[in-house]
Structures are given as structure tokens and as C-alpha cells.
Specification:
By secondary structure, this protein is α+β, with helices and mostly antiparallel strands. It is built from 13 helices and 19 strands. 30% of the residues lie in helices and 28% in strands.
């Protein structure tokens, strides 16, 4: 019977065959210990000379790292390992012997590992990060499907910019100018007017020449938009969603969090509601913490976000930023026209902003004025302006950056480890 490593607990006492790669090994006299991986997990296989043919034992001792095999044996309990089970081997069939595998158990530099990203993904640490990423994606679909959202896929090639910035990748679309999408939001607003509650999940691109540990050139965004939902209701949805995802990772990725030595007590605290602090109060707090150079009307940088987050033991919403530093589509506060109904969700432990969201403008006259102020008049935006013209309603939305969220929940230092093949300022390979 052929099984996977992850199915081993259900097959205790059975003799099974697993297709696997050799992650590492050690031998001592008449016994060899093989560390196996098969994509679903890692497990030790014990090859005793007395239990196998001489040929099989010599194969076990001589096989090189990352060689592939079919390995047969009995699944037994192993209380010493985190996985809890191991295989007592009876036979090995070598499929392919890997010669001179470049990533050995010794230490390697980051650039070397990034050059060999296609192989680095096989390591136990990278496997754990990718499994956590997968769980965040799975939990995202579960949350939005259970709450009656419809998944809509916005285009990657667009004729306009969602944020009205110049940090865009230009391309030719036959005889027209086009851009790689930096957000699906505008299209999701259109979808929300058709389906009520929608979400997208897809790649976005920012031509931002940044080298920080929080930035990627290509990254993935989860972007819900909701009709008949105001700013306060949106904040509640955001904190419920983030809490759901965090608790799903805690429940379903125990082994992976253990591999990464993640302090899970920090994750156990991620439960709604989250604290809120206004931009005004955040500026005051920063000045009290020694940031004398920050002035009202300036955007916060990473040190500012970290200092604010350290004041709380959960993710924190910074609300009501100045209108002048936020996007054209954000609805002004009815009681203060100089600030908008928006919020950034700042993760603890120095991971920075993971969500940006707002209530959107639903008034045609104001939206037209915003278009003029931001120089967005033109045919490329006519369709978006029509959303305010034909049956507009109060509506809100937000975008969560997947890679920053993976970094935060898994506890890794740099977002380059949170996406299978990162695109950085100076990296387009592999």
C-alpha cells in the first residue's frame, strides 16, 4: 500500500510504501537513520542491518542527499520526534541518485540560497513557511465562502492605476498603454455593486525601488469589497477575518510553527476585537515616545508603525488619516473633511502594516471633484466614475498583503522567504 508521510498516523502498525526524497542521514554501525521528506511532511526511517538485505543496507548508507526512492517498511510510534511516528524499513528502491546537491546541511549565505531558491524550497524551514502560507490561503477561502462572499478575479493588465501613483510597470497592449495591476480594488468595487460582498486573491505589482524586509515587487493581495457596509462595520470584519486566519494557523500548523520556533503565545492573543487609535492620537503617542520630528499630515514610516504597535499587545488599527496623504477614493469623515474614513492594521512585533482599508466615496459630485484634483480625468477612468452615478451605495473594502501576513504569523524576518519565488529589486532569477 502506497501512502504519504502525512498519512502515517492512520497507518500505524501497517507495512507501507512511501515515495520520498532523502533530506539527510546518519549511520552508526549496524543501523542507518534516514530523514525522509515527501512534500506532505518529514519523517525518520530506521534501517537495521539485521532487517534488510545487505544490498539494501549498503544503499541506505551510501545514498546521497536529495536522492529519490520508494521506501517500504512498518509505521511505528516514535514519541521522541515532533511528528510522533517513524518507519522501520524493510526495502528501498532507488529512483534517482542526486549527485553533488549544492545545498548541504552546513550554513549558506542568503544570496547563495536565493540563487538556488528552486532547491531551497525543499528545506524543512522553507517547507514550514510555505505550509503556513497555504493554510492562510485555505482559511481565507473558508472565511469568505462561509460569510457569503463571491470570489471575483480582477484583470492583471489594466489601463489605469488604482492608487493614482507612478509606481507602475508599463507595457504595450497592442497600440495602447497598459500597466500591471497594483490593486484589483477599483474592479472589485464594480463587482460589489453587482454581487454585494466579493473578494479577490491574486498577484499585484509595485515598481517601488525598495530594499526593506517588508517589500516585494510582486506580491499577492486579498481584497474584499462590501456594499452597504460602513467604515466601522468594515473594521469589525477585518479583525474577525484576521483572528480567524491566525487561529486556523495555530490549530492546523503546530508542527510548522514548532520547526520555525515561533512563540505561539503571541499568536494566541490574536483575537477580536483589536484596539483602535486615531491618527491624531498616534502622532501624540509618537512624540511622547521621542519621535520629535513627526508632524501632523506626514505619513508614518516603519519605525513609527513599530513604535505604535509596541504600545499594544494585539494588532492595532490606526484610523482617520489626513485626506492629503491617502488615496482619492476614500470617503471624508462627515465631521472632519481633513481626514478620511480609513484604517491601517499594524501587526505587532515589528511586522508593520498588513491591511489598508477605507469606506469608499459614493457621491458622484465628490468623486468627480477628486478626479479633477488628482488629474484622473480621461476615458480610462470613465467606467469607475459611472459606479457613483448608477445606484451607488455606502461601501467599504480593504486589502491584506499575503506575504507580510505570512511573515508575521510564521515569525520569519524577511518577506523573501514567504513567497515561493520572490521578485526583489535586484532579483528576477530563478
Amino acid at each position: 500500500m502506497k501512502i504519504t508521510i502525512s498519512q502515517s498516523p492512520k497507518n500505524e502498525g501497517q507495512t507501507v510504501t512511501i515515495g520520498a526524497w532523502l533530506a539527510n542521514k546518519r549511520s552508526s554501525g549496524k543501523i542507518a537513520f534516514l530523514q525522509l521528506r515527501d512534500g506532505t511532511g518529514f519523517m525518520q526511517a530506521v534501517v537495521a542491518k539485521s532487517d534488510v538485505s545487505e544490498e539494501t543496507f549498503q544503499l541506505a548508507k551510501s545514498m546521497s542527499q536529495e536522492s529519490s526512492m520508494y521506501i517500504t517498511g512498518k509505521i511505528v510510534e516514535d514519541t521522541r520526534s515532533a511528528f510522533g511516528y517513524e518507519m522501520q524499513v524493510s526495502d528501498i528502491e532507488l529512483i534517482n541518485e542526486a549527485i553533488d546537491y549544492p545545498i548541504t546541511p552546513k550554513e549558506h549565505g542568503t544570496e547563495f540560497l536565493m540563487d538556488h531558491r528552486h532547491l531551497w524550497l525543499r528545506s524543512k524551514r522553507q517547507h514550514a513557511v510555505m505550509k503556513i502560507r497555504n493554510e492562510i490561503i485555505r482559511a481565507t477561502y473558508e472565511y469568505f465562502n462561509e460569510n457569503e462572499y463571491v470570489k471575483i478575479d480582477p484583470p492583471v493588465l489594466t489601463g489605469s492605476s488604482a492608487e493614482g501613483t507612478t509606481e507602475l510597470f508599463h507595457t504595450k497592449y497592442f497600440d495602447e498603454e497598459a500597466y500591471l495591476s497594483q490593486s484589483g480594488q477599483l474592479y472589485m468595487e464594480a463587482a460589489a455593486m453587482a454581487f454585494g460582498k466579493v473578494f479577490s486573491f491574486g498577484p499585484t505589482f509595485r515598481a517601488e525601488k525598495s530594499k526593506t524586509r517588508r517589500h516585494l515587487i510582486e506580491f499577492w493581495m486579498i481584497e474584499p469589497e462590501m456594499s452597504f457596509v460602513d467604515h466601522a462595520e468594515s473594521l469589525e470584519i477585518q479583525e474577525q477575518y484576521v483572528s480567524f486566519v491566525a487561529q486556523s494557523v495555530l490549530t492546523n500548523c503546530k508542527l510548522e510553527l514548532d520547526v520555525l520556533e515561533r512563540d505561539t503565545s503571541k499568536l494566541e492573543m490574536i483575537k477580536a476585537p483589536f484596539p483602535r487609535i486615531s491618527y491624531d492620537d498616534a502622532v501624540t503617542l509618537l512624540k511622547e515616545k521621542g519621535f520629535d520630528d513627526i508632524e501632523w499630515g506626514e505619513d508614518f514610516g516603519s519605525p513609527h508603525e513599530t513604535a505604535i504597535a509596541e504600545h499594544f499587545d494585539k494588532p492595532v488599527f490606526i484610523t482617520n488619516y489626513p485626506a492629503a496623504i491617502k488615496s482619492f477614493y476614500m470617503k471624508p469623515d462627515p465631521e472632519r473633511s481633513d481626514v478620511v474614513l480609513c484604517a491601517d492594521l499594524i501587526a505587532p512585533e515589528g511586522y508593520g502594516e498588513i491591511i489598508g482599508g477605507s469606506q469608499r466615496i459614493d457621491d458622484l459630485e465628490l468623486m468627480t471633484k477628486r478626479f479633477e484634483e488628482h488629474g484622473l480625468a480621461g476615458e480610462a477612468y470613465n467606467w469607475y466614475l459611472e459606479l457613483s452615478k448608477y445606484g451607488s451605495v455606502p461601501h467599504s473594502g480593504f486589502g491584506l498583503g499575503l506575504e507580510r501576513t505570512v511573515a508575521w504569523l510564521s515569525g520569519v524576518d524577511h518577506v523573501r522567504e514567504t513567497i515561493p519565488f520572490p521578485r526583489l529589486l535586484n532579483r528576477l532569477y530563478p
